[in-house]
From TrEMBL:
Transposase putative helix-turn-helix domain location: 41-86
Organism lineage string: Bacteria, Bacillati, Cyanobacteriota, Cyanophyceae, Oscillatoriophycideae
The organism of origin for this protein: Microcystis aeruginosa NIES-44
Entry keyword annotation includes Zinc: yes
Keywords assigned: DNA recombination, DNA-binding, Metal-binding, Transposition, Zinc
Pfam families documented for this protein: Cas12f1-like_TNB, HTH_OrfB_IS605, OrfB_IS605
Top-level lineage group: Bacteria
Cas12f1-like TNB domain residues: 334-401
GO molecular function, one term: DNA binding
Identification of the protein by name: Mobile element protein
Every Probable transposase IS891/IS1136/IS1341 domain range: 208-322
Length: 447
């Protein structure tokens, strides 16, 4: 009896099928496909800016006003909730903001542009909408928590719509801020619909534009790759290549500890404490930039070199609960790498597939499909007792990931050649019949 994959008609199609390879003969595999569409895609282009001292004061005032509008409105909504009333809609909150500006206590809100203040209300509306949708169980992923109050020391931002800014050759003009000098590291692909001015914890300023980009469909080169993510080696490809991560946190951990220890000894509210805080923030920014640069370059290379990319769905949030591995896992950025591969696959017309984390990719022999007992993490190389093949643990896992993604050229359960494309399975193709007449080994002997 043949098994038909169930197909959903959305952009992210999911296929459920029995694998045609002998190594996956008894396992149900979930494969996610993301097909590139020809419609324009939304993207963010971020640039560094260098405001003057006067502009820094104006931006600081703007950030403060945006933060006050968010916190005041959030406190107002929470008070209504305690009284048993429903949360007001955006239109009601916007009218309330107009009335608040006329009061003596909040009259200084009129000194900045009204556009970022209105956008702050829209952001709060979106945050509440995501929270309510998550509570109803209609939102995928983790449960979304309710909105929180914003702090002055954290990352600050303010968003302008298209009627609040002008893009020039050497600067960007913001309403009631002036001309901000900008370094165009790359040209904008289209007219931006909005721009967000950002100040990070290390006092760096950026402009982030939302633009439309047309997908650049790369020619199909027929290549496919399975990627096994690890700690000692960041990524092992099914081709046998191993890629090491820079591990920026590990390299700067001693310097970071010293800076944090110095910060803890400073008196709260003093200028020296603020300087010490900036030193810690700069180290964190350097760590983040180093990690992001590595992941961006690696993901671009993988997407350009392969038509099909298969990755394993790792439970990163559960793995970081291990106190012995949490710092090392957080330093690698597995989830960021996966998101980059997904976004760039959509942009360049590649197939990005995710297989189930329950697949025994590290335990199964990629040659004969035999699972010879559980292999602990400290076993990096092993020999299959069924076919005698010697395996590197990571390379073997990467090959199995590629096979689980439907990219196998080995023999299936009926002795036929597996196709690289996903098709309907033929009769008994997912059977457990072995190709060899060799007797089945006793699994108890491997324990």
């Amino acid at each position: 009896m043949s098994h038909r994959p169930s197909v959903s008609l959305d952009r992210k199609q999911s296929f459920f099928l029995f694998a045609t390879d002998l190594t996956l003969s008894t396992d149900l595999v979930r494969i996610d496909y993301r097909h590139t569409h020809l419609n324009p895609m939304k993207a963010r282009y971020q640039y560094r800016i260098y405001p003057t001292d006067q502009q820094k004061r104006l931006l600081s005032q703007l950030f403060g006003c945006v933060r006050v509008v968010w916190n005041d409105t959030l406190a107002y909504c929470q008070e209504l909730y305690r009284q048993g009333e429903k949360k007001p809609k955006y239109t009601e909150l916007s009218k309330r903001l107009t009335q608040v500006k006329k009061t003596e206590e909040r009259r200084w809100l009129t000194e900045v542009s009204s556009i970022p203040l209105q956008q702050s209300l829209r952001d709060l509306e979106t945050a509440y909408s995501n929270f309510f949708t998550s509570c109803k169980g209609e939102r995928k992923g983790k449960k979304v928590k309710p909105p929180k109050f914003k702090k002055r020391k954290s990352k600050q931002s303010a968003r302008f719509t298209d009627n609040g800014f002008t893009v020039n050759q050497h600067c960007v003009t913001l309403a009631k801020i002036g001309d901000l000098r900008i370094v165009w590291s790359r040209p904008l692909p289209s007219k931006p619909s909005s721009v967000t001015v950002i100040k990070d914890a290390s006092d760096r300023y950026f402009l982030s534009f939302v633009v439309e980009v047309q997908p650049e469909i790369l020619p199909d080169n027929g290549e496919s790759v399975g990627i096994d993510l690890g700690i000692a080696t960041f990524a092992t490809l099914s081709t046998g290549e191993k890629i090491d991560a820079p591990k920026p946190l590990k390299k700067r951990l001693k310097r970071l500890r010293k800076a944090q220890k110095n910060l803890s000894r400073k008196q709260k509210g003093s200028n020296r404490r603020e300087k010490a805080r900036k030193r810690v923030a700069k180290i964190h920014a350097k760590i983040k930039d180093t990690r992001t640069d590595f992941l961006q370059k690696l993901s671009t290379r993988v997407v350009r070199e392969n038509q099909t990319i298969i990755l394993e769905d790792l439970n990163t949030s559960g793995m970081v609960k291990n106190r012995k591995l949490s710092r090392a896992i957080s330093d690698l950025g597995w989830r960021s790498f996966r998101d980059m591969l997904s976004a760039k696959s959509d942009k360049y017309g590649r197939d990005f597939r995710i297989i189930s984390s329950w697949e025994p990719t590290s335990q199964r022999c990629s040659c004969c499909g035999n699972i010879g007992g559980k292999k602990a993490l400290n076993i990096r190389e092993w020999e299959c007792l069924f076919c005698g093949t010697f395996h590197d643990r990571d390379v073997n896992a990467a090959i199995n990931i590629k096979v689980a993604g439907g990219q196998s050229e080995t023999l299936n359960g009926r002795g036929g050649k597996c196709k690289t494309s996903v098709k309907e399975a033929s009769s008994r193709e997912a059977s457990t019949v072995r190709l060899s007449s060799r007797p089945k080994p006793n699994r108890r002997s491997f324990n």
